Amino acid sequence: MTESLWGDAAKSKPRTMTGKVPEVARHTAAMHPHRLLLFPALLTLSACALHADATRDAPASPPAMLLGDFVDDYGIGHKIDAQQWLQRPDTRYNVVAWHPEAHYLIARNDAGNRSDAGLWTRIDWLALPGMPPYEWAFCLSAYNAPTQTDAERRAIAHRDTPKTGCNGYPFSRMRRAPTTPD
């Protein structure tokens, strides 16, 4: 029989100073051998849970067609990036969640806005293929919701009828703003 690198002590059960195996150690080893199998299983489940949380909480990216400088049907300018939607001259929506697969975003109205400051907004959009110069259109489904959850639940946009699908009004069509040379 080959002795381990650490000697026989590495193979032996824990002992007291008198050399006897403590009652607790004998009881645990004899009565609960499944605990040795349980630890790797728990470790694996914990790793999976951490990965699932990280995946679930990863923010979605906005569609490229919505980013940039635009002018709507009414001549109002809009500047949109991943974090903020600016409706000129000074109304700001701070984006907290993009839902590109469902075609909407959730934003918190900026504290400096003249109206509905600090409240919540849901903006639904749809693509407008074959309608140049307009590329897409949006609907403010909610603009003064008291909570993020309330804004999420206000699904009033009807993309199949864009002329009346924004609570009886048309979606606002968006075209790229003309670029000016520096």
Please tag this protein with its features.
182 residues, alpha+beta, eight-stranded antiparallel β-barrel, 3 helices, globular
What can you tell me about this protein's structure?
The protein is α+β, with helices and mostly antiparallel strands and 182 residues long. Helix content is 21%, strand content 29%. It has two domains: 8-57; 64-176. The protein is built from three helices and eight strands, in the order ααβββββββαβ. Strands 1-2-3-4-5-6-7-8 form an eight-stranded antiparallel β-barrel.
Q: Helical percent range?
A: 10-25%
SS field, number of helical segments: 3
**Order of strands across the widest beta sheet?**
1-2-3-4-5-6-7-8
Radius of gyration: 30 Å
Tell me about the largest β-sheet: 8 strands, antiparallel, barrel
State the distance separating the first and last CA atoms: 85 Å
Which structural class do you get from the secondary structure elements? alpha+beta
Total E-strand runs: 8
Shape: globular
Low-confidence stretches: 1-12, 38-45, 48-56
Mean pLDDT figure = 81
Strand content: 25-35%
Run of helices and strands: HHEEEEEEEHE
Total individual domains: 2
Short description:
The chain is of the alpha+beta class. The protein folds into 2 domains: 8-57; 64-176. The chain has 3 helices and 8 strands; from the N terminus they run ααβββββββαβ.
